[in-house]
Amino acid sequence: MDKSPAIELKGICKSFAGKIANNNVNLTVNRGEILSILGENGSGKTTLMNMIAGIYFPDEGQIFIDGKEVVIRSPKDAFKYKIGMIHQHFKLVDVFSATENIILGLNEKGSFNIKEAVKKVKEISDKYGFEIDPMKKIHEMSVSEKQTVEIIKVLYRGADILILDEPTAVLTPQETQKLFAVLRRMREHGKSIIIITHKLHEVLSLSDKVAVLRKGEYVGTVETAKTNEAELTEMMVGKKISLNIDRSEPENCTERLVVKGLNCVDREGVKVLNNISFTAFSGEILGIAGIAGSGQRELLEAIAGLQKVNEGEIVYNNPKTGTQDNLRDKTPMQIRDLGVRLSFVPEDRLGMGLVGNMDIIDNMMLRSYRKGKSVFLERKAPKDLAEKIIKDLEVVTPDAHTPVRRLSGGNIQKILVGREIAASPTVLMAAYPVRGLDIGASYTIYNLLNKQKEKGVAVIFVGEDLDVLIELCDRILVIGSGSVTGIVDARSTTKEEIGLLMTKAKDSHGGEKNE
Amino acid sequence: MNKLNIHIVKRDTVVWYKSFLVRAIAIIASLLVSAVVITLLTGKNPIEVYSSMISGAFGSSLRIWSLFQNVAVLLCIALALTPAFKMKFWNCGGEGQVLVGGLATVSVMMFLGDSLPYPVLLIVMVAASVLAGIIWAVLPAIFKAKWNTNETLFTLMMNYVAIQLVAFFLKYFVKSGSGILTPMPEHGLPVILNQPYLLNIITVAVLTVLVYIYLKKTKHGYEISVVGESENTARYIGINVPKVIIRTLIVSGALCGIAGLILVGGTNHTISTTTAGGRGFTAIMVSWLAKFNPIYMVMTSFLIVFLEKGAGQVSTDFRLPVAISDIVTGIILFFIIGCEFFLQYKILVSKGRKEND
To answer: Are A375 and B240 within 8 A, CB to CB?
Structure first.
């Protein structure tokens, strides 16, 4: 296989509203090569790729395909140069079949020949080892199948250069392995693949070269074989940081929250939680693992009084009074009035946990503004709290009067977590608290959770990165399609075991076996 | 070939003097463009046209009082709509809510005016107008809170019901059959310092401050903002969203009722189907232009009333069709609203690279 450069970027710059997203980026990808683009959130990976895919237009710089300079003004131009991008969020029509989605938007002369198309889809699948039913409707598909459709879609259009934006974010470890096998086969067939990721071990296991971006700046490209995790982290973050979580042994564990036989349906009447039972102990971090959308959100919202419960009990053991309260069918207000100190960091930070257009002080007030009988607001205490959180958690903001939406993801999350912890909770629930955060901020959050655990708080942590779950939690509850498929000891389990449990759900209705 | 690339880029923040400058330029530009249009269309001297505009608004003490009276009414309705708008409840029913407030006032004046002592009559008048406004506003709110109906349509429909109700009232109770109710100033709101409009103006000034405090400093105002920004957040922190919707529309309706009271009890002392005169809709613009800030609304309502009065004067002075003054008003508003775009975005022009194709 010849290793001539397939695509070359020279001095690419792009800025938005005066903020530099990419500055002087240089990249080369050869034919038959996999390049990882590594960088923290907000480092400009996706922006860079969007310029190759014709979605953005660079302010400066040149793009060469096969050694010839090209101008890519639209996704159509990108197709012309055989570039295909698989976005993080799929762009598929739900009620169409795989094949229909694949040929959608193709401007071929004459009428469509769906049989021909199906045949061609099958050929592509066989060539690269995809498993796909060309006639299956999108809405019947799992996330990984949808991703497969997206990949075949660009191959069908003859793409030679494939860009995948965080393709493993939604996959289980097993599905990730399958995807990597396919990508390796494509490489053998001379395709050039660019994969955007921030997971180091994936970079090391898959790619030939790694290009690192940091805050829009191009740091450099290294050969995977000649590097290691520590070096890549340093390139990515700009300084040496230790990637260890100090996990203490749980102490004084008492039953704090007991969930028994919880059943919930969503608005369409589809069962989202199926007979969920577990206990959260004080002084312990209970992890919740599962494929995205398996009922994690509904479970936490049910406990917080935001999701209607059809069956089951949520029993809270009040450590102060020694009483047992059933939180089921209580509103968030009633739960607080019972003296239950339940803090909740929801997945949707700006849509639920905070109000983006309000400043930091007013966001602090969300939890406390009702205090006192006066009809007027009291802004002194929230202001002090805001300033304390800004100082303690090193929030980067001009001042406490800045609207929250102007802050970066990590700082937004620090504000939210800070506020929830300031309520000195006895139960702390956090859904994907490090999603979108850079490495430094992530570890700040992990440490905050750990400290709460040491204070005797029952912490419930919903995570997506299995490595982190295993390192941070004491026990991990795995849910699949709304059922508990297992509760494992985080100190002795493996990623593979959790991965298997995540996909187990359907064949073991209700009768889950726990060790 | 070289191509010019035009990019529209969102601005980060604008310092206050820059935004002031942009707005000032917009107003000057609008006056210049209007001047050109006036000269081209009518051949009149634009300076004279503008001075006639100013005289229309400020020309005599009567005109000044009338200007402030109109500002007060428009501002009052805008104040009424603002709490609902802040909550993203699109109350387009100002017109109807004002009208029923007026209808309640006129009914009290007509049927109880002679039998009740004057102070009691006043109290009943205020209570009736407020109650009527509340009923008209709270009905759509209840349906929205309980069944999530579309409040825009509902409030709009309520306007027509209110107009028909007034028409029915005039047809049925005006004995002469002319459909025109003779004014009853003797049963109207009291006149202070011999100025018929002064009480209205003072009332609205007080309301402006109260609404400002209500929205910015009270727990209710805070809840309105949270519900408006994100209903999910409101639920998450335990705000009873339906309750806030209904409560806010009670406030909104009550203020509209007061606007009706001012129009009927304090100004016309009678009612017709056009008493509200489209102000229920103009008030929407007043509120939006001021970004829902009651203090800014004083300025935006003043601007709109000034344009209206001035343009009316221009068409009488120069015997021009009313359409000309509408054009001028349109141009000025276009520039004022349009300059907001330049406050939020900037336009970059860069020379494109040579394309090798």
So the answer is: no
Nearest CA in chain B to A70: B356
Q: In this complex, is the C-beta atom of B237 within 8 Å of any C-beta atom belonging to chain A? A: yes
3-state secondary structure of A438: coil
- Tell if the CB–CB gap between B219 and A376 is shorter than 8 Å: yes
By C-alpha distance, the chain B residue nearest A71 is B355
Same domain, residue pair A171 and A80: yes
Q: Has residue B26 got a pLDDT over 80?
A: yes
Q: Which residues in chain B touch residue A431, judged by CB atoms under 8 angstroms apart?
A: none
**CATH number, residue B163:** 1.10.3470.10
Q: Pick from B88, B217, B237 the residue to mutate for testing the A interface (most A CBs within 10 Å).
A: B237
Do B192 and B222 share a domain, yes or no? yes
Q: What is the DSSP letter of A35?
A: E
Higher-scoring residue by pLDDT: A88, A153: A153
Structural domain includes residue A414: yes
- Among residues A237, A263, A278, which one ends one of the domains? A237
CA angle, B317 then B322 then B324, to 5°: 90
Contact B283, B124 (CB under 8 A): no
Q: Does residue B330 lie in a domain region?
A: yes
Candidate from A355, A375, A376 with C-beta closest to B226: A355
Please indicate whether residue B247 or residue A228 has the higher confidence score (pLDDT).
Answer: B247
**Beta carbons within 8 Å of A450's beta carbon, 6+ residues apart:** A245, A246, A247, A248, A285, A472
Q: What whole-number distance in Å separates Cα of residue A456 and Cα of residue A449? A: 11
Q: Do A366 and B217 touch (CB under 8 A)?
A: no
Subunit contact A366:B350, Cβ cutoff 8 A: no
Residue B54 located in a structural domain: no
For residue A98, what pLDDT is reported? 87
Burial class (CB in 10 A: 0-12, 13-18, 19+), B205: middle
Same-domain check for residues B347 and B284 = no
Chain A contact for B60 (CB, 8 A cutoff): no
- In whole angstroms, how large is the CA radius of gyration of chain B? 23
Same domain assignment for residues A170 and A263: no
Whether B102 has a pLDDT exceeding 90, the answer reads yes
Nearest CB to B219 within list A68, A348, A375: A375
Residues A457-505: tens digit of each pLDDT: 999 999 888 888 888 999 999 998 888 998 999 888 888 888 888 877 5
